[in-house]
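Below is a filled-in request sheet from our internal design queue. Each sheet records the structural input a requester submitted and the sequence that came back. We keep these sheets so that new team members can see what a complete request looks like end to end.

REQUESTER: design group, bay 2
PRIORITY: normal
MODE: inverse folding
CHAIN LENGTH: 78
BACKBONE (tokenized):
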């Protein structure tokens, strides 16, 4: 995965990277860099945070279920 560094970093091979450089790292290295705050996040992006929104509006029980494009329900009649 390619990431942009927020600070200078020396990779495990000894290569020195400057702040702003884009480097290709594996998932483990990426996690380590993110934990240390060394990776830039694009504006508006949240890499590991997830948000859930809920509504206070009541849901009509008659409107819960498959949508209009779903296949017909199986029938129990034979």
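RETURNED SEQUENCE:
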């Amino acid at each position: 995965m390619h990431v942009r560094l927020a600070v200078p970093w020396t990779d495990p091979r000894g290569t020195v990277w400057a702040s702003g450089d884009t480097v290709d790292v594996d998932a483990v290295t990426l996690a380590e860099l993110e934990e240390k705050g060394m990776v830039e996040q694009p504006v508006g992006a949240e890499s590991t945070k997830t948000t859930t929104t809920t509504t206070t509006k009541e849901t009509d029980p008659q409107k819960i279920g498959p949508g209009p494009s779903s296949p017909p329900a199986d029938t129990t009649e034979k």
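SHEET NOTES:
- The first strand starts at residue 2 and ends at 4.
- Residues 26 and 60 are 47 Å apart (CA to CA).
FILED BY: M.R.
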